[in-house]
Amino acid sequence: MIFIKNAWYVAAESHELTGNLLGRTICGDPIVVFRDSNGAPAALEDRCCHRHLPLSLGKRTGDKIQCGYHGLEFDKTGTCVSVPGQKRVPPNASVRPYPIVERYRYIWIWPGDPDKADPSTIPDYHWNDDPNWISNSGYFHVQGNHQLLVDNLLDLSHVQFVHATTLGADGVTDAPLHTYRDADQVRIERWIMDKKPPAMFATAGNFLGNVDRWQLISWTAPTHVVIDAGCANAGTGAKDGNRNEGITVYSNHTITPETNDSCHYFWHHARNYRLDDTELTKFLANAAQTAFGEDVDILAAQQRNIDSAGRHWEGIDINADAGVLQARRVVTKMLEAET
Amino acid sequence: MIFIKNAWYVAAESHELTGNLLGRTICGDPIVVFRDSNGAPAALEDRCCHRHLPLSLGKRTGDKIQCGYHGLEFDKTGTCVSVPGQKRVPPNASVRPYPIVERYRYIWIWPGDPDKADPSTIPDYHWNDDPNWISNSGYFHVQGNHQLLVDNLLDLSHVQFVHATTLGADGVTDAPLHTYRDADQVRIERWIMDKKPPAMFATAGNFLGNVDRWQLISWTAPTHVVIDAGCANAGTGAKDGNRNEGITVYSNHTITPETNDSCHYFWHHARNYRLDDTELTKFLANAAQTAFGEDVDILAAQQRNIDSAGRHWEGIDINADAGVLQARRVVTKMLEAET
Amino acid sequence: MIFIKNAWYVAAESHELTGNLLGRTICGDPIVVFRDSNGAPAALEDRCCHRHLPLSLGKRTGDKIQCGYHGLEFDKTGTCVSVPGQKRVPPNASVRPYPIVERYRYIWIWPGDPDKADPSTIPDYHWNDDPNWISNSGYFHVQGNHQLLVDNLLDLSHVQFVHATTLGADGVTDAPLHTYRDADQVRIERWIMDKKPPAMFATAGNFLGNVDRWQLISWTAPTHVVIDAGCANAGTGAKDGNRNEGITVYSNHTITPETNDSCHYFWHHARNYRLDDTELTKFLANAAQTAFGEDVDILAAQQRNIDSAGRHWEGIDINADAGVLQARRVVTKMLEAET
Predict the structure, then answer these.
(1) How distant, in Å, are the alpha carbons of A117, B83, B145, C25, C316 from that of B304?
(2) Fewest CB within a 10 Å sphere: which of B9, C70, C310, C324?
């Protein structure tokens, strides 16, 4: 399995961790994620070093995890601190711990070299817990490689075809696309000027006429995509910075590899207008859940076709792939650097 | 996967294609089959040359297929004629087209070298749309290699055991068997003289006493089997050509490889008597559906046992396999010629 | 697949064989088990030597099995004695027979070299049909390697964690453990003196105070485990041989490999007190079924984690594994001797 390991990935949404032991496979590793007695998150290899049972089938006792098979206990660093029936713990008895940080309502994990884990490099998703924004979030388990989902988000020309009845609207693919790259980031910008608003925005923003619409995608390696998507009344200067007559949604996505052909898909939507409108919140949550579910079906069908084609198959690229290709180049370099 | 590719296979029954895009795997290839705006059938590789999505998840626009992911459009020859967001189509943008012909209420496809596809070699199944005959048809998805199903049909001694309560009757296996081979055809003939009629024929023909019964099998490589099965009052000269006191059913079968261990099974039954008797038609349709369903279960169990045995396993042959062995020899030669 | 083949394994409980043909995979071999017209058990390869169909899909005719596909008949020795449509049976037409013995309400089979099959080496499970004992029995299909289940039974320290609410009680793992080995047997003994009785024993024995409790495990290679577990009023000399003020349950287990990652698990419980108490019988049967079901879940989770870890993974051992390690050494030697 091929993954960039030296990277922060989302292991779970904060609300998924209460008193439970959450077992989840990340970059091919079985991992148990939990909170200690103070609520701080911890992550250990989800496989007892004695007889392989997933620790997530055991229980938490104070700040320790007790294996559900023979009762070995592990502290938060993965060190075995107690073996029933004997006073001495074998010196090599331990499971692997993973660096973990809670931020932006996400539990972030670092599956690679722990010495390289620097929390200051966690990508910015502040919209998800910023009091000036209101956000909806959700999770999908995807039966496709994580890169396919990154590709999907970096080429929004698919919106017109996959999400025709939800996010989509005509005219997207005709708008010019600009791609910028620096270091481990790629930005892809598209402005669709003076067109009808798509269904979701029309409802949310009560637009009567045409709009100037923007899709500003920012990808941070390896799998983090922030999309500033919005529209304003046509001709009111949105492109030049005046968005007072428009609405913005941050459609943010972060993807965690599970296996070679599956991944975890975390998304949230955040807006900074009509914060108290719970009806609108519900409407946008449903719209996002429906639209992203359409992508999930696409990705699974893609993966099946890739698997059946075998390695010899090569596809073609189109202009809309400019951002995808830039990002893939960054990923290839990072993979080479790791191996 | 090992298939004879230079051959006509049934991709679908005619009635399966209305306005839909039918995705079906044939000889290991994912293929989308559809009708153009004039109702003429067409078949393309079911995998967009851009990002692998099955084209069968897209939609038909006029005579073109539009991919459901990024909107690339392909004409009936598989040429990509439009890419959203750009004026120029990449010169190598295309998917593979397959020769296709509609005949005898079947859609025939040629998965091999298109230059060798000669519609005059489509095997004769005229009974299926001949106004002098009335026919029932059906489809089974079989979890076994196509050759196992051909074997099944070329050794009807199984009828006595697998179809004891439907098609079967005692005495079949004791009757002498004659096998004839020429080029890519094998004929297997069995006459069962002066015996009780099997249940289905007894009901259909109202026979009061014994019958002379025939099973005349004609196999055309690689997977096409026509069976002229009938019976007449015993001693009325059916064997010498007088079938006026009997009834005939053409029990026809054509099999399309899907993968190494699965296939598509198309069958029809045709008779040339009591054409207006809809009760009889219903009775025969049910009888066939039930009986062939018994074969489908057998084939899946066979395949599982073959898989678990591995390659080292070798079985024995019996006299009743004469036709099977002739046909397998033809298939081996054809496979060698292709590779 | 790696199995000790020269060994007696339980193919079925006696009551499973009535007039049926029971198909079961044992040590990777598909096997059909049945009774002849006199009720004597027989076992044959479950794969017709002609076209691979499982013979268990056929039927018994007298003392023979008739294949359900083309009607070949096999006697109890596996010799094909009849082929429909021909007088002569091909000389190599046969399926493999397996040595088989019915004893202790079990059908025992020998998947290895038949010349080495000596019924006197069938392990002692007389409690299961001894009139002085009353027993409950049951079967589980386990999605884990048979050795994992043997390990489980040879380290009862798991009882305290896996079966906390059924068989378990505190204090088990603190009690000293003694391990004895001779030839292909390992005995593991633990006495837990002057403690509260576990739930199941408390109910069964109406103990008012503390008990002296014993777990005497006897393993016979490769997969047979007899456990004499009981308790008596504390201080009444149970350890010295006086068990008059106690109760005993033989908790017996015998495991049959199916594939590398699955096995058949046969267990029975036998007691020699309150033989007529049907309520108690029911209570103990339910308790055993529930408790062993907990093990089955553990084993499947273990196997999944072993599979995902790959071969490079190595665990640690603890003191409680003394018996497990002794037994594994015996198994390794036996496997080496066979190959």
Answers:
(1) 49, 45, 11, 12, 38
(2) C310
Whole-angstrom Cα distance, residue C66 to residue C70?
A: 9
If DSSP codes are grouped into helix, strand and coil, which group holds residue B157? helix
pLDDT of residue A206: 83
- Residue whose structure tokens are 């449903």: A286
Q: Which residues contact C184 (CB under 8 A, 6 or more apart)?
A: C220, C221, C330, C334
Q: How many angstroms separate the CA atoms of A195 and C86, rounded?
A: 81
Residue-wise over B230-245: b if at least 16 C-beta within 10 A, else e?
bbbbbeeebeeeebeb
* Number of other CB atoms surrounding residue A121 within 10 Å: 13
In a mutational test of the A interface, the residue from C161, C178, C190 whose CB has the highest number of chain A CBs within 10 Å is: C161
What's the gap between Cα B221 and its chain centre? 11
The whole-model pTM stands at 0.91
Report all structural domains of chain A as residue ranges with CATH numbers, in order of start: 9-112 (2.102.10.10), 126-338 (3.90.380.10)
Both tokens of A258, joined, read 């599970």
CA pair distance C179, C323, nearest whole angstrom = 6
CB contact under 8 A, B305 and C53: yes
**pLDDT digit string, tens, across residues A70-98:** 999 999 999 999 999 899 999 999 999 99
Question: In this predicted complex, what is the ipTM?
Answer: 0.90
pLDDT of A99-156, one tens digit each?
Answer: 999 999 999 999 999 999 999 999 999 999 999 999 999 999 999 999 999 999 998 8
The tokens describing B234, both together, are 């015993």
**B:C CB pairs within 8 Å:** 78
- For chain A, give the percent of residues with pLDDT over 90: 73
Cis peptide bond prior to B222, omega within 30° of 0: yes
Estimate to the nearest angstrom the gap between the alpha carbon of B320 and the chain centroid. Answer: 22
Contacts of B92 in chain A (CB under 8 A): 316
B311: exposed, middle or buried (Cβ count in 10 Å: 0-12, 13-18, 19+): exposed
What is the DSSP code (8-state) at residue C245?
T
Q: Which residues, given as ranges, of chain B have pLDDT below 70?
A: 166-173, 311-313
DSSP H or E stretch at residue A139: strand A134-142
A30: preceding bond cis by omega (within 30 degrees): no
Which among B52, B66, B85 has CB closest to A305? B52
CA distances from B159 to A294, B152, B154, B168, C93 (A): 48, 9, 11, 5, 21
- Is A153:B64 a contact under the CB 8 Å cutoff? no
